[in-house]
Write a structure and sequence with these properties.
heterodimer; A: alpha/beta; 7-stranded mixed β-sheet; 7 helices; B: alpha/beta; 10-stranded mixed β-sheet; 3-stranded mixed β-sheet; 10 helices; 15 strands
Chain lengths: ~220, ~375
């Protein structure tokens, strides 16, 4: 009986008004000058019917669209909801929305619909609601994507049999600068091993293709 | 998998600067919640739990170059200093990892003109500054998962130690009470105009609090108290409202029991999240019933120090460990009459009880839930 190990089944990225899946560009919007317009264009291009999308803050939209792309050709229904885990990291937390919320406070009427998004893990909540994911999760904050730590943490989740699949990566948004990189990891007997080397290489390649800046 | 022991702890809130001060007041059923005057952008008088400014100023004498740090960073430094002093643990080694839990970090910097650089608004930057204070060479881990952050941080630390990735973990949670959170919870109509009453029939919402708490874990130095394990789940239902069924939380509890090789009947005490909102407490009651815990002596600590957000999971876990060590159940302050549709065994008065295993739960915005077990040998 061949042994199972964590495998990278797919990876998706969003940056510079483009969306990529497994190294191929699947969407580009040259016209939009701001993320908000780009996100709307992507939503329309994906022909999604999900009204909640328009209430989300920009960070949650970014995570949502990246997860939508990542899982497009995957069948997560192979797993029970609690078998799928989500481990996300970023640098600025929900600071973009925090500042927007504070501005509403300055105008005397604080906005409840903005306040609910002043936590970074809300983006995980939105992904979980959309795809009915109920398993292990965590949200880490770091100055840069700590591939060494995140890969060890996710591998340990698999070793301890706390999950059979994992959506993991970096979802970063601040003042219209954005980068999203998600990896779909499954326990399988063949495939590209999910480890520091492969994760680093894919992350580096994605960034090189997509990004010319470091937010 | 290695055994993970608790070798130090601290609590810092309206109830004092250390765990001993907290335990004394918990045992006397004395709350740290008071009516306070708020100036600034959200003016008014609100019941809240604030760190005493005089005690705090005095304590900061122990911090070298204290004016280089923000208020929250000082809470963290004081809390960590106290916790690590209890075991003479050398934290300047790469075998020790610092793990932080906070929901908003230095959010007060958004509204202040302090000389502290604005980059410290980023939790990663804040965490680095604090771990640098203690000369720890590793990049610290920071968890920000709403109100489950503290429990998630302890769980993350125990998993890393159990797997042998580190030998020690200094796990610290903290949050401030600011206009930001005060206004936010107020605008969600989640705040009570009286001290919060978890699980009570007349509960009207949360009381906010601030502070920090620290727990030190080790696989190299044994102690009578262990972290057995735990689990995190998501309701996949609503981003700010608790699930109506409590299924996500009961799933986290049942997973935590399974991982710890325990059954519901083994639990001697349950430290609930108990925020005192109508919906949260009702959801928890359903979850506890599903997990067969309705007979277990249960409390919420939030009647003592309010909802401390990123500090909550740490403060309340440490309080539970003192309960475990002292074989004493602490009164669930604010509770008089059962106010949830499925009755729980809420602790009405402090009482002695021989305890071996305790369960701590937490739930948060984003639909997340966490459960963790502690054991005394």
């Amino acid at each position: 009986m061949p042994t199972e190990y964590p495998v990278i089944s797919a990876h998706a990225s969003i940056a510079q008004q483009s969306i990529w899946l497994n190294g191929k560009k699947v969407f580009q919007d040259e016209k939009s000058t701001h993320f908000k317009a780009f996100a709307k264009a992507a939503y329309q291009a994906f022909e999604l019917s999900y009204p909640k999308f328009h209430k989300m803050d920009q960070l949650s939209k970014l995570g949502f669209l990246c997860a939508e792309t990542l899982l497009k050709d995957q069948n997560i229904k192979n797993y029970a909801p609690q078998e799928i885990s989500v481990v996300i990291a970023n640098k600025n937390s929900s600071l973009d929305t925090d500042e927007k919320y504070l501005a509403t406070l300055d105008n005397i009427v604080p906005s409840p619909s903005l306040f609910v998004y002043t936590l970074p893990n809300i983006l995980i909540g939105e992904i979980c609601i959309r795809h009915q994911i109920k398993g292990e999760q965590n949200f880490f904050l770091s100055e840069s994507f700590d591939i060494n730590f995140v890969s060890k943490y996710v591998i340990d989740i698999f070793h301890q049999k706390l999950a059979k699949a994992c959506i993991t990566g970096w979802i970063e948004y601040y003042k219209d600068e954005y980068q999203a990189h998600l990896f779909y990891v499954e326990s399988k007997t063949t495939g590209m091993p999910f480890n520091i080397e492969n994760l680093s290489a894919l992350f580096r390649d994605d960034k090189r293709i997509i990004c010319t800046f470091e937010p | 998998m290695k055994k993970v022991y608790v070798i130090g702890d601290n609590m810092l809130s309206s109830m004092g600067m250390n765990s001993a001060a907290h335990w004394e007041q918990l045992a006397a059923a004395q709350s740290g919640i008071q009516k306070h005057d708020f100036k600034g952008q959200f003016e008014g008088q609100y019941y809240s739990s604030l760190v005493d400014p005089i005690a705090f100023d005095e304590a900061t004498q122990k911090i070298s170059q204290a004016n280089h740090y923000t208020r929250l960073e000082k809470y963290f430094i004081l809390s960590i200093q106290d916790a690590i002093s209890q075991s003479a643990l050398a934290v300047n080694t790469d075998k020790t990892i610092f793990i932080f839990s906070s929901t908003k970090g230095n959010i007060d910097l958004l509204s202040s003109n302090e000389a502290i650089p604005k980059e410290r608004l980023r939790l990663g930057s804040m965490a680095q500054v604090i771990s640098n204070y203690f000369d720890n060479p590793n990049t610290p881990i920071v968890i920000s998962s709403a109100c489950i952050s503290g429990v998630a941080a302890i769980l993350t630390g125990s998993r890393l130690l159990s797997a042998g990735i580190y030998d020690q973990a200094v796990i610290s949670g903290g949050d401030l009470l600011t206009d930001f959170t005060l206004s936010g919870f107020h605008t969600l109509k989640a705040m009570s105009d009286a001290p919060c009453r978890p699980f009570d029939k007349n509960r009207k919402g949360i009381t906010l609090g601030e502070g920090a708490a620290t727990i030190v874990l080790s696989t190299k130095k044994a102690s009578p108290i262990q972290v057995l394990g735990g689990s995190i789940s998501n309701d996949a239902n609503h981003i700010s409202g608790p699930s109506r069924t409590g299924d996500g939380l009961s799933q986290a509890i049942q997973n935590a029991l399974q991982i710890s090789k325990k059954a519901a009947k083994d639990i001697g005490f349950l430290s609930a999240h108990g925020t005192a909102t109508l919906y949260n407490d009702e959801m928890e009651a359903k979850a506890f019933h599903t997990a067969q815990l309705s007979e277990v002596p249960t409390n919420s600590y939030k009647g003592y120090w309010g909802h401390t957000l990123g500090a909550a999971g740490l403060l309340e876990s440490v309080a539970s460990l003192h309960s475990l060590q002292n074989n004493t159940l602490i009164q669930s302050l604010g509770f008089e009459e059962m106010g949830v549709s499925l009755a729980l065994n809420i602790i009405r008065k402090k009482q002695a009880k021989s305890l071996q295993t305790v369960l701590k739960t937490a739930s948060g915005f984003g639909g997340c839930n966490a459960a963790i077990l502690f054991q005394k040998d």
